[in-house]
């Protein structure tokens, strides 16, 4: 069976905890040499395991349940469930299974274990860690972007002459940048704005009201309460009834300039 897949450049650090030397050796042989997996250390009793978890900060612990002095459950309680790494319990006694899953163990492997059973447990653990890391990455990116938006908002209030040059777009846990020069027009979409760049669109958490103070007024103009256009993309202006205009962009998109925003006509005409 092939080794489980993990994130490229993401190493999962594993701590082996068992009071039986033979079991520790078998686990180490199973884990050694696997791509994306590193044995961070070993512990032969519960007290040593607590110290190792606190000092080595492993991502995953293969943890024996029945050990002298402090058993596997005692290790979890000592560390605390919030700070405890992911756990795969290993034991020769199946009566502990219910207790193991009640404290959110990823898996429960009975001795004598086979490589196939260890493979299943490791794959399940790595999959859970992938999900957690992806979630943590999204969280970090969201915090980063929220902080950036707050800084930019304050910057535009204090120094209007300092303009933004690109948008930050979140997609699938990744961060992309869209230069303002690529944007044809922008529309409001609830608590978001939708950037139109050629045939593509990008959703960004922002508001047109904030953008008015952050974008260069010689480059962008608001033509409707829910629409802004890039001025050099405007190809034609056609008068409509009641003081409104139809704005045609180079892409062929047609938008309405409402009479509430007629003061931008001069900027659109002079480019």
Write a structural description.
By secondary structure, the protein is of the alpha/beta class. The protein has two domains: 12-135, 3-Layer(aba) Sandwich (Rossmann fold); 163-270, LytTr DNA-binding domain (OB fold (Dihydrolipoamide Acetyltransferase, E2P), Beta Barrel). 34% of the residues lie in helices and 30% in strands. It contains seven helices and 15 strands. It has helices at 21-31, 46-56, 72-79, 97-102, 115-158, 208-214, 265-270; strands at residues 12-17, 37-43, 60-64, 86-91, 107-110, 166-171, 174-179, 185-189, 192-197, 200-204, 220-224, 227-230, 234-239, 245-249, 254-257. A five-stranded parallel β-sheet has the order 2-1-3-4-5, with helices on both faces. Helix 2 packs parallel to helix 3 (72-79). The longest helix has 44 residues, at 115-158. The protein is rod-shaped. Mean pLDDT is 81; it is low at 1-9 and 158-162.
Mean pLDDT: 81
Largest sheet geometry: 5 strands, parallel
Secondary-structure element order, N to C: EHEHEHEHEHEEEEEHEEEEEH
Provide the CATH top-level class of the largest domain: Alpha Beta
Question: The CATH topology of the largest domain is what?
Answer: Rossmann fold
- Count of helical segments? 7
Computed CA radius of gyration, to the nearest angstrom: 29 Å
Instruction: Look at the structure and name the CATH superfamily of the largest domain.
Output: Response regulator
Protein structure class: alpha/beta
Strand order in the largest sheet = 2-1-3-4-5
What is the CATH architecture term of the largest domain? 3-Layer(aba) Sandwich
> Can you tell me the residue ranges where pLDDT is under 50 for at least 5 consecutive residues?
1-9, 158-162
Oligomer classification: single chain
Beta content comes to 25-35%
Distance between the termini: 65 Å
| Number of DSSP strand runs | 15
């Amino acid at each position: 069976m092939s080794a489980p897949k993990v994130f490229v450049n993401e190493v999962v650090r594993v701590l082996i905890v068992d009071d039986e030397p033979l079991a520790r050796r078998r686990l180490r042989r199973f884990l050694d040499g696997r791509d994306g997996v590193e044995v961070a250390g070993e512990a032969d009793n519960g007290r040593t395991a607590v110290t190792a978890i606190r000092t080595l900060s492993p991502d995953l612990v293969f943890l024996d349940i029945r050990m002298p002095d402090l058993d596997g459950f005692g290790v979890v309680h000592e560390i605390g469930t919030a700070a405890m790494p992911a756990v795969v319990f290993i034991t020769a006694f199946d009566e502990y299974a219910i207790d193991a899953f009640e404290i959110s163990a990823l898996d429960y492997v009975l001795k004598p274990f086979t490589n196939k059973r260890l493979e299943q447990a490791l794959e399940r653990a790595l999959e859970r860690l992938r999900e957690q890391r992806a979630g943590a990455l999204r969280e970090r990116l969201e915090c980063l972007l929220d902080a950036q938006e707050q800084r930019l908002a304050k910057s535009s209030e204090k120094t209007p002459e300092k303009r933004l040059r690109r948008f930050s777009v979140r997609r699938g846990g990744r961060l992309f940048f869209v230069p303002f020069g690529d944007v044809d027009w922008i529309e409001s979409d609830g608590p978001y704005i939708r950037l139109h760049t050629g045939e593509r669109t990008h959703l960004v958490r922002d508001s047109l009201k904030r953008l008015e103070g952050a974008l260069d007024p010689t480059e962008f103009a608001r033509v409707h309460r829910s629409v802004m256009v890039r001025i050099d993309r405007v190809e034609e202006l056609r008068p409509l009834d009641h003081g409104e205009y139809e704005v045609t962009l180079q892409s062929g998109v047609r938008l309405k300039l409402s009479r509430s925003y007629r003061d931008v006509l001069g900027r659109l005409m002079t480019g």
